[in-house]
């Protein structure tokens, strides 16, 4: 059955559980360049990368994260893109961020790492 209309226009935001909201806001701003856009309440912060990319950080008392696993390897729930992956890799190492994997997949370099709450994140730099 053909789709007669655009059913979903875009993804509004990604929601990430964190253990410490203030620490996570500071980490995402300092390490990934996200900006605090606003707050919902004492447990919710809205971060913005650009006019189309938003992340909501939710402080939770539960020990949880957005990861799932394939063959024992933690996988990210979403992927970001950069044009400076080597610099980002060095910057994250310098801050003590846990680097899970830094690879060349042929079509792109991939940098998989964890935020302070243990959420696995992935950044790609596509080959030109």
Which SSEs are present, and which pair or pack?
Blueprint: E1 14-18, H1 21-32, E2 35-41, E3 44-50, E4 53-59, E5 68-70, E6 73-75, E7 79-81, H2 85-94, E8 99-104, E9 108-114, E10 120-126
Strand order of the largest sheet: 1-4-3-2
CATH architecture of the largest domain: Roll
Gyration radius, in Å: 16 Å
The succession of helices and strands, N to C, reads EHEEEEEEHEEE
Q: Indicate the structural class.
A: alpha+beta
Pfam families: Glyoxalase
Domain VOC: 7-126
Protein name: VOC family protein
InterPro entries: Glyas_Bleomycin-R_OHBP_Dase, Glyas_Fos-R_dOase_dom, VOC_core
Brief description of this entry?
This protein is of the alpha+beta class and 128 residues long. It has helices spanning 21-32, 85-94; strands at residues 14-18, 35-41, 44-50, 53-59, 68-70, 73-75, 79-81, 99-104, 108-114, 120-126. It has two domains: 12-59, Signal recognition particle alu RNA binding heterodimer, srp9/1 (2-Layer Sandwich), CATH 3.30.720; 68-128, 2,3-Dihydroxybiphenyl 1,2-Dioxygenase, domain 1 (Roll).
Write up what this structure looks like:
This is VOC family protein. InterPro entries: Glyas_Bleomycin-R_OHBP_Dase, Glyas_Fos-R_dOase_dom, VOC_core. With 128 residues, the chain is α+β, with helices and mostly antiparallel strands. It folds into two domains: 48 residues, Signal recognition particle alu RNA binding heterodimer, srp9/1 (2-Layer Sandwich), CATH 3.30.720; 61 residues, 2,3-Dihydroxybiphenyl 1,2-Dioxygenase, domain 1 (Roll), CATH 3.10.180.10. The chain is built from two helices and ten strands. The strands form three sheets. Strands 1-4-3-2 form a four-stranded mixed sheet, covered by helices on one side. It has a four-stranded mixed sheet with strand order 7-10-9-8, with helices on one face. The radius of gyration is 16 Å and the shape is globular.
